[in-house]
Specification:
Length: 88
């Protein structure tokens, strides 16, 4: 867990950077949660409510274009891309 304190002159709040099941922190350990969610179903299962959308994002597969010049690597990359397309 990475944690940082905001300047106490401005506020006494803390900002916690977490990974994993963060919805479990509410309401006992946090007043507010910023969560990256695809469907919101887990949030709803925990009786939480989405109050605003800060941004929308998409997944990206990023690779080294020089790898495409290597036939073996190109074949492995194509295979991975095909598997991901089926999964999505």
């Amino acid at each position: 867990m990475f944690s940082t304190r905001i300047d106490p002159v401005i506020t006494q709040d803390s900002v916690e950077f977490e990974r994993g099941a963060t919805e479990a922190f509410l309401p006992e350990d946090a007043d507010l949660l910023i969560e990256n969610t695809e469907t919101g179903s887990t949030i709803a299962r925990h009786n939480l409510k989405i109050i605003d959308t800060l941004f929308e994002s998409t997944g990206r597969l990023i690779g080294n274009k020089n790898s495409l010049s290597n036939p073996a690597k190109k074949a492995r990359i194509k295979s991975l891309v095909d598997i991901l397309k089926v999964a999505v």
